[in-house]
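Annual report, structural modelling task.

Input specification for the flavin-adenine dinucleotide complex:
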Amino acid sequence: MSVLVFADAKNGKVIKSAFEAVSYGAKVGGGSCIAVTYGDVSNADELGAYGASEVVVAKSIADNDSQVLSALVADVAGQKGANTIIFSQDFTGKAIAPRVATKLSAGLVSGAVDYPTADFTIKKTAFSGKAFANVKITTDNRVISVLPNSVGAENTGGSATVSDYAGDVGVSKVKIIESKSAASDGSVPLPEAELVVSAGRGLKGPENWGIVEDLANAMGATTACSRPVADIGWRPHHEHVGQTGVAIRPNLYIAAGISGAIQHLAGVNGSKVIVVINTDAEAPFFKAADYGIVGDAFEVLPRLTEAYKKFKASN
Ligand SMILES: Cc1cc2nc3c(=O)[nH]c(=O)nc-3n(C[C@H](O)[C@H](O)[C@H](O)COP(=O)(O)OP(=O)(O)OC[C@H]3O[C@@H](n4cnc5c(N)ncnc54)[C@H](O)[C@@H]3O)c2cc1C
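The model returned the following structure:
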């Protein structure tokens, strides 16, 4: 079996979720895989440490255009004789994996949380993360997209040869005029964030978000919010997490003044550790929490910030 992994890149660097996808691909491929990336990337060779034996770089592709990138992946799969294609189930992976599956007449499993068994049965999330399904791919070509933070990236210390893509992906049918990062403050974008501090209607108004930002800044975390908070304009829409917002899987999710409605949980219940701060001991979020603080966010958040700063200073 030959495995090809799509490694997404942004701002001249292969992004974090790509390293996990390559680790996954290397395990599926019995120790190694080929990776494909694009643009003027400076760290393509680093994928070798995560199990890529070769990295193909399509330098001439500058934009994140799903049609062009899916043509690239399908073409490299053909050139390399790869029959198993791995993506990260992030924004780009979600857009490209189904297109590549169609091009290669491949069975697709999206949102895999574990490695395939010998007969290519794969565990994946279903119903917005409330259930798991085991799905078997029965076609010769296979496409799998891996949920970020589900298996982890493993540095095995190898190295990769980096080669230029030789092929033709055709002309794009759209022209990207401008792309702007939603997070203009330099924080890690939510889908890639390992630490997230989030707040909801319990914060009473946008003027109170300073205490949320203080904790996030101290920890190097990204801020998020519940949907009503974004709907009423207290926070920007790109911070809204949940079923209809961004789905995240950080190592730590701190939620203050959020009730824990199922639609909110659907986007955050893959977090490794959940800390809930709520004045109402009966708030549903406590059932999903690893740590719960029954208390007023206006008191608890500043104390957490202070405690974190002290901890940092002494370590
Ligand atoms: C189709 C559909 C899709 C949806 N998608 C999403 C989604 O993607 N994401 C999402 O978040 N919601 C979504 N919702 C809305 C969801 O059902 C809830 O209404 C929403 O999550 C509630 O937001 P909240 O917890 O901020 O507010 P509330 O439900 O009003 O909860 C506020 C909480 O703050 C606590 N609180 C109050 N004061 C304090 C204080 N001083 N300190 C600490 N705690 C305090 C209260 O006890 C309460 O638990 C969706 C709803 C529908 C119908």
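Helices lie at 16-28, 66-80, 91-103, 210-219, 227-231, 262-268, 285-288, 297-313.
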